[in-house]
């Protein structure tokens, strides 16, 4: 029996858990991490229940009246598109929450050694988890929001809590980078807000389902342009990508996967807010987006290839990978959009595994510079396999879901039937080659070859505890499952995207 | 029931992969047995499909599940037709014998569990590729075999010195982990292009299903041909995949380095099966393009055949020439593999040149695939045993080993004779079929290249065999044999057994060669002409078979005799010829450096791309980052400083200055008005009232 407030619970249970952790941090002690995980397990169960319901054909809608006069109410909607996004995001939050239980000690140990063994340590430990839990709150909120104000609110929640997490638990230049990230977040948000203001001025509503009423309006062009500038910055598309390597490189690795979601979720919003309601007005933006995306794919991959810092590798890779989904979305066919969004989901799973294994290497060796790494496969065989799987998940190698996503997406790109689709499609496929190259190149650099003497002598280097490995294995299995059974995701997308596009 | 056999062919290796770690917990012996047992079951399933070839009217058979139905339709299924049944049998049966060999070869290796898992995964993936009924599932198998190949080439990932290939010093060595990366990236170039080609076909045809593509060709090929150049583009994209996977020019450079994997891996993946998948796929594509040109009247479709034939011929010649001077045993065999696959491509390419040679070309390519798989697998397995015995990868470190490895000498001898093309071994029959169809195509340039390649093949085969087993023992072998308890001898029994079994296979296939050739012709004639309705004309031979046999045997003699004199009887002194002739030295250097293609690729693609990557990361990115993250904020900060200045000097200055002046200047002057004298106030009031009244009156 599905609870009637299922969506509300999915959003607010993690927030409630955060509050409990904040209030009872000293009583909970080291259990606060498990409380966070427990709350996410609960929301996961709810999401699975919602998934079965929606897969049956009915979207879920919940309406909550906040004020009667003036009439202010909040509506949450879960359809095939949003439930898929929410489910994968929640899965990643759950996995990374579990991964953080051990990992975050390492950050506290390095950053706040003076607190070790006293209340300060517990406080910082709890602090991480109550801040962390606002990621699922933000992601679920963005997924289920039915109006622009709510969407804006949850996007800002993400930006704000990301700022605190990074400033508290990041690496060397964490405060500077946290401020930079906040400024970029606000930059995106302001453009988004400007677009929202124009929409409201023309439609008199913030609801997504009313945006279509301004289709054909000359101002629709400006709405799309402004929102796109904001989202291009969020997605780190060249040339507004410069924040990404810094931010990814300096924040704690355990939230890295979520940062990829933070950036890439903009692809989902573009489809929801701009493409589906303003289909005809959006057509003119398709080719420039495709060209920018393909440039970014190549640029990001080349940037990745040259990196020597463990944490900057996946950082730069995110630039390239986010652009994949934008390439599909920019091609503006039902298949390419669905493929692009499926790639977004596959990418965030792959990136979480890739980033987290980089984190494991840094956690175990305390080395970030590739020059001093090598041969770790002998000491960390499971980590090596996970790293390679992460790379292959990014490169779209079967059986992972990214392969199915790529096939659907590129089939959609060629379906355009024009020269641009043909040229960009082929260049895009060749750009994937660069992803394959860096995946195997870095696997070799880090895990293969002879073990440097310093690492060989260090007996502490081994595969990390299972609480760090198991979540990543779970993600790999989910990705493989969706790769073998892509119909599940595609059937969820179909009524929202294919059906809508068919009517355009 | 028959399609269930195909599914079982896919399922058994998968069970093998999953069970291996579990069996490893019991004991290594049990794990070894389990791994080989599942490959045995797979081979049995494949063999059980063979009777279908005798009731060919029942074929093709298909069994399908929906993999994806929205927004594109992809089914996951198996297709049983003569081509898939034959190739599946080649893969499954040879795999089994190689797995048996591995029990001996890999004995005591610490990574044996990983090895078994990868080997069974490979067998399953390869069979998926062969048995799949649509292009996307074929592509999945295609990528998975590439992945297993990557894992197995870099099997010795710690790069210990004994596993290095290349050299000898002062020449460069290559480490296994780098070789794996190279193979994966180079083959992926072709893969990605081929995926593009498949997806473009889907756009026009609306299906990935192989049979549907054949059946609906009359509808979608004309639509595709309406866009000028599209068929040529698709041909190039589709050929790129097989070119990469089958190590054909210009993507052939990965295979020699792939020899860094364990010996049986080279036998299985890089000789008998995976590298043939390109040939298999070209055979799958042939009916489409044949229909396009000969029945659909699309001129551009002929480019598919021209490109395939020329790539095959160039590769056959190029690789064979490199094999002439190589000294690493496995690399010679690798060059030979590349060259022989070139023959298969050549046959399949010329198959489309005329309507009367379609079936003959198709048959020749497939027949050579089968015979080469058997004798090259045997050669590689024997090479593994010999390298193990000699403790060296170089044929120059061997010599007179016949007495130490008598069985291997026989087996390898038979396989080498087959490679050379000595009748009545299978290599002779299949090579003769390739030469025949090339001659019948009336493309004499291609035929000439093929005959020259036959000469080269005979030369390098005789050379390596003589240097390994005959002549004088090398210094290295003498040193090895003087060691107490030396290992210069036959390998473990499973090794010898597997080599022997394959050697028997060579003999049997050779004895029944003409019969096999005839049966294959019948099968493919049924498949292509009656099954698919491709229009052909009856073949009337323009040239006598004897002529081709004369060319074939003549070529063999031209190659064998000098090699015999140089390396077997040593009547001619190879070193003296090398020292005395500048031209020989130049040619040798050119061939030794593999036509400088590898160096060129390294320079342009590896160093070039890394240079571009570094330029992007450390020049462009630094510049853009600096502009946006440093200069822009600095500009904003500059503006804020101006704002502060304006605030202090402008706004504050005006307000404060005014106040100051009012207080100090105007205040002092005006204070004089506040004199305290009533009469002055009164007078002032009257004056002001008069002025105001006057002004009011005036206005």
Task: Describe the 3D structure.
The complex is a heterodimer of chains A (504) and B (699). With 504 residues, chain A is mainly α. Chain A has one domain (6-502). Helix content of chain A is 75%, strand content 3%. In chain A, strands 1-2 form a two-stranded antiparallel sheet. Chain A is globular, with a radius of gyration of 22 Å. Helix content of chain B is 75%, strand content 3%. Chain B has 26 helices and four strands. Chains A and B meet through helix 11, helix 14, helix 16, helix 18 and helix 19 of A and strand 1, helix 5, helix 6 and helix 25 of B.
Please give the structural blueprint.
The complex is a heterodimer of chains A (504) and B (699).
Chain A: H1 6-23, H2 25-28, H3 32-55, E1 60-67, E2 72-78, H4 80-111, H5 119-132, H6 134-144, H7 148-169, H8 174-203, H9 208-211, H10 218-235, H11 243-250, H12 256-275, H13 279-282, H14 286-305, H15 312-331, H16 334-365, H17 381-395, H18 401-415, H19 419-447, H20 453-457, H21 466-484, H22 487-496, H23 498-502
Antiparallel strand pairs in A: 1-2
Helix pairs in contact in A: 1-3, 1-5, 1-6, 3-4, 4-5, 4-6, 4-12, 4-16, 4-21, 4-22, 6-7, 6-12, 7-8, 8-10, 8-11, 10-12, 11-15, 12-15, 12-16, 14-15, 14-19, 15-16, 15-18, 16-17, 16-18, 16-21, 17-19, 17-21, 18-19, 18-21
Chain B: H1 2-26, H2 28-48, E1 61-68, E2 74-80, H3 82-105, H4 112-131, H5 135-153, E3 165-166, E4 173-174, H6 176-205, H7 210-215, H8 217-225, H9 230-245, H10 254-257, H11 263-272, H12 277-295, H13 302-323, H14 329-351, H15 358-390, H16 406-420, H17 426-440, H18 444-469, H19 475-482, H20 493-511, H21 513-531, H22 545-568, H23 574-580, H24 582-592, H25 597-671, H26 678-698
Antiparallel strand pairs in B: 1-2, 3-4
Helix pairs in contact in B: 1-2, 1-4, 2-3, 2-4, 3-4, 3-11, 3-15, 3-20, 4-5, 5-6, 6-9, 9-12, 9-13, 11-14, 11-15, 12-13, 12-14, 12-15, 13-14, 13-18, 14-15, 14-17, 14-18, 15-16, 15-17, 15-20, 15-21, 16-18, 16-20, 17-20, 17-22, 18-22, 23-24
């Amino acid at each position: 029996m599905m609870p009637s407030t299922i969506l509300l619970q999915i959003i607010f249970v993690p927030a409630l858990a955060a509050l409990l952790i904040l209030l009872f941090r000293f009583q909970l002690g080291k259990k606060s991490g498990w409380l966070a995980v427990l709350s996410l397990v609960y929301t996961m169960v709810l999401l699975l229940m919602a998934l079965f319901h929606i897969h049956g054909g009915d979207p879920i809608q919940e309406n909550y009246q906040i004020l009667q006069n003036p009439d202010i109410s909040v509506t949450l909607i879960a359809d095939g598109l949003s439930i898929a996004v929410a489910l994968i995001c929640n899965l990643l939050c759950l996995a990374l929450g579990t991964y953080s239980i051990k990992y975050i000690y390492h950050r506290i140990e390095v950053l706040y050694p003076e607190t070790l063994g006293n209340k300060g340590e517990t406080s910082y430990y709890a602090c991480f988890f109550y801040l962390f839990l606002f990621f699922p709150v933000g992601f679920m909120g963005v997924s289920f929001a039915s109006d622009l104000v709510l969407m804006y609110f949850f996007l800002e929640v993400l930006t704000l809590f990301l700022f605190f997490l990074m400033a508290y638990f990041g690496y060397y230049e964490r405060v500077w980078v946290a401020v930079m990230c906040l400024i970029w977040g606000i930059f995106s948000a302001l453009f988004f807000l400007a677009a929202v203001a124009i929409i409201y001025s023309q439609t008199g509503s913030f609801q997504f389902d009313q945006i279509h009423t301004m289709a054909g309006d000359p101002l629709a062009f400006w709405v799309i342009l402004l929102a796109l500038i904001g989202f291009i910055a969020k997605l780190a598309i060249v040339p507004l990508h410069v924040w990404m390597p810094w931010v990814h490189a300096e924040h704690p690795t355990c939230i890295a996967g979520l940062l990829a979601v933070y950036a890439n979720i903009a692809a989902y919003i573009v489809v929801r807010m701009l493409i589906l309601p303003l289909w005809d007005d959006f057509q003119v933006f398709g080719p420039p987006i495709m060209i920018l995306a393909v440039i970014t794919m190549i640029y990001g991959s080349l940037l990745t290839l040259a990196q020597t810092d463990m944490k900057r590798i996946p950082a730069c890779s995110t630039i390239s990978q986010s652009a994949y989904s934008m390439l599909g979305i920019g091609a503006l066919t039902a298949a390419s959009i669905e493929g692009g969004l499926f790639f977004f989901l596959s990418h965030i799973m792959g990136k979480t595994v890739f980033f987290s294994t980089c984190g494991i290497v840094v956690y175990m060796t305390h080395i970030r510079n590739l020059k001093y790494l090598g041969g770790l496969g002998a000491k960390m065989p499971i980590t090596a396999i996970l790293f390679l799987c992460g790379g292959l998940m990014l490169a779209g190698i079967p059986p992972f879901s990214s392969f199915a996503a790529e096939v659907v997406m590129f089939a959609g790109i060629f379906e355009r039937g024009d020269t641009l689709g043909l040229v960009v499609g082929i260049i895009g496929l060749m750009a994937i080659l660069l992803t394959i190259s860096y995946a195997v190149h870095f696997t070799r650099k880090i895990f293969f070859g002879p073990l440097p003497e310093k690492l060989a002598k260090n007996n502490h280097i081994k595969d990390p505890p299972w609480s760090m490995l198991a979540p990543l294995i779970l993600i790999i299995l989910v990705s493989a499952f969706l790769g073998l059974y892509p119909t599940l995701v595609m059937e969820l997308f179909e009524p929202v995207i294919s059906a809508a596009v068919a009517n355009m | 029931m028959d399609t269930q056999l195909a599914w079982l062919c896919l399922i058994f290796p998968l069970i093998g992969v999953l069970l291996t770690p579990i069996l490893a917990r019991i004991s290594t012996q049990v794990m070894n047995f389990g791994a080989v047992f599942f490959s045995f079951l797979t081979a049995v399933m494949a063999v059980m499909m063979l009777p279908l070839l005798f009731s060919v009217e029942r074929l093709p058979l298909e069994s399908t599940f929906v993999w994806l139905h929205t927004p594109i339709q992809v089914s996951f299924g198996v297709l049983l037709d003569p081509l898939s049944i034959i190739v599946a049998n080649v893969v499954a049966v040879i795999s089994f014998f190689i797995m048996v060999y591995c029990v001996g070869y890999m004995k005591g290796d610490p990574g044996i569990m990983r090895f078994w898992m990868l080997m069974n995964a490979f067998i399953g993936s390869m069979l998926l590729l062969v048995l799949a009924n649509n292009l996307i599932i074929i592509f999945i198998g295609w990528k998975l075999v590439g992945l297993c190949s990557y894992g197995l080439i870099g099997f010795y990932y710690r790069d210990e010195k004994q596993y290095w290939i290349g050299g000898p010093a002062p020449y460069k060595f290559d480490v296994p982990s780098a070789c794996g990366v190279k193979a994966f990236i180079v083959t992926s170039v072709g893969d990605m292009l081929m995926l593009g080609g498949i997806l473009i076909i889907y756009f026009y045809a609306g299906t990935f299903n192989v049979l549907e593509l054949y059946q609906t060709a009359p509808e979608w090929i004309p639509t595709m041909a309406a866009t000028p150049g599209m068929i040529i583009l698709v041909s190039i994209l589709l050929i790129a995949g097989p070119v990469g996977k089958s190590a054909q020019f210009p993507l052939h450079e990965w295979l020699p380095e792939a020899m860094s994997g364990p010996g049986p891996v080279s036998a299985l993946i890089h000789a008998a099966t995976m590298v043939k998948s390109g040939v298999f796929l070209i055979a799958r594509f042939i009916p489409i393009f044949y229909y396009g040109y000969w029945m659909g009247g699309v001129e551009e479709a002929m480019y598919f055949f021209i490109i395939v034939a020329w790539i095959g011929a160039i590769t056959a010649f190029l690789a064979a020439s490199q094999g002439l001077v190589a000294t690493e045993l496995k690399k010679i065999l690798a060059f030979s593999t590349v060259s022989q696959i070139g023959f298969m491509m050549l046959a399949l390419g010329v198959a489309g040149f005329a309507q009367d040679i379609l079936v003959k070309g198709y048959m020749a390519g497939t027949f050579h695939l089968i015979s080469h798989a058997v004798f090259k697998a045997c050669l590689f397995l024997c090479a593994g045993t010999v390298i193990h015995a000699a403790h060296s990868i170089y044929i120059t470190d061997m010599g007179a080993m016949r007495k130490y490895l008598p069985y291997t000498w026989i087996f390898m001898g038979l396989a080498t004779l087959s490679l050379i093309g000595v009748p009545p071994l299978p290599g002779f029959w299949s090579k003769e079929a390739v030469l025949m169809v090339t001659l019948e195509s009336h493309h004499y340039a291609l035929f000439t290249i093929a005959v020259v390649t036959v000469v080269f093949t005979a030369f390098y085969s005789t050379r390596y065999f003589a240097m390994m087993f005959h002549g004088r023992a090398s210094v290295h072998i003498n040193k090895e044999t003087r060691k107490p308890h030396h290992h210069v001898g036959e390998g473990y029994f499973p090794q010898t057994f597997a080599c022997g079994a394959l050697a028997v296979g060579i003999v049997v296939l050779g004895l029944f060669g003409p019969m096999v050739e005839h049966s294959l012709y019948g099968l493919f004639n049924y498949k292509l002409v009656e099954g698919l309705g491709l229009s052909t004309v009856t073949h009337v031979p323009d040239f006598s078979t004897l002529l081709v046999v004369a060319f074939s045997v003549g070529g063999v003699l031209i190659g064998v005799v000098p090699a015999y004199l140089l390396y077997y009887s040593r009547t001619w002194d190879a070193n003296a010829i090398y020292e005395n002739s500048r031209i020989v030295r130049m040619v040798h250097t050119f061939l030794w450096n593999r036509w400088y293609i590898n160096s060129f690729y390294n320079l342009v693609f590896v160093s070039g791309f890394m240079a571009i990557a570094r330029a992007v990361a450390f020049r462009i990115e630094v510049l853009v980052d600096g502009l946006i993250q440093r200069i822009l904020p600095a500009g904003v900060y500059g503006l804020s400083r101006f704002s502060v200045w304006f605030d202090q000097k402008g706004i504050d200055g005006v307000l404060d200055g005014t106040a100051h002046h009012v207080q100090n200047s105007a205040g002092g002057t005006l204070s004089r008005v506040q004199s305290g004298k009533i009469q002055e106030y009164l007078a002032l009031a009257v004056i002001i009232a008069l002025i105001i009244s006057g002004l009011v009156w005036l206005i």
